[in-house]
């Protein structure tokens, strides 16, 4: 079995083919028969896990296993404590409330330069947030920050469960260690249902 981590660059599709000629994973990962676990938007950057372990791929993509993903998000404006509370308690997206998340302000975030810089407006500050979710709605983080009044300008996935970007630069990938594969499999292991124990009198 193969297990790879890729730092997906900006404006790359999380698939291996595109009839419109856009960049895909094939431009960065010359390994046959591996497939991405879940998706990362074309205009988002960061960690993508690829594997040919179909069972693990299915379980890690299934929301019921609640694998936490960590995003660092640059937003327009400076979110208030109330906005962070709202992100954590859940926001309405197309009539459906998101599950509780973790959200906090970050300071001193430094990333590589993006191929297309974010739009800059001198009179509007930007802020980096860390947002952790275990749901997988389409463009969820962007919709969440927009719902509380702070549009996303840049989004980087920095962790999937215990796996982090580390030193990976955009377009670079590496094999997972045996220990990392074990950690992922532990995350995706079905939890035994709670069985109450009764003492006999």
UniProtKB/TrEMBL annotation:
UniProt-recorded Gene Ontology molecular function terms: catalytic activity, acting on RNA; pseudouridine synthase activity; RNA binding
Transmembrane segments: none
Keywords attached to this entry: Isomerase
Record carries keyword Cell cycle: no
Domain Pseudouridine synthase RsuA/RluA-like: 2-147
Gene Ontology biological process terms from the UniProt entry: pseudouridine synthesis; rRNA processing
EC number(s) per entry: 5.4.99.-
Pfam families referenced in this protein's UniProt entry, alphabetically: PseudoU_synth_2
Record carries keyword Isomerase: yes
Family: Belongs to the pseudouridine synthase RsuA family.
PANTHER family membership: PSEUDOURIDINE SYNTHASE FAMILY PROTEIN-RELATED (PTHR47683), RNA-BINDING S4 DOMAIN-CONTAINING PROTEIN (PTHR47683:SF2)
Entries under NCBIfam families matching the protein: pseudouridine synthase (TIGR00093)
Name recorded for this polypeptide: Pseudouridine synthase
Lineage: Bacteria, Pseudomonadati, Bacteroidota, Cytophagia, Cytophagales
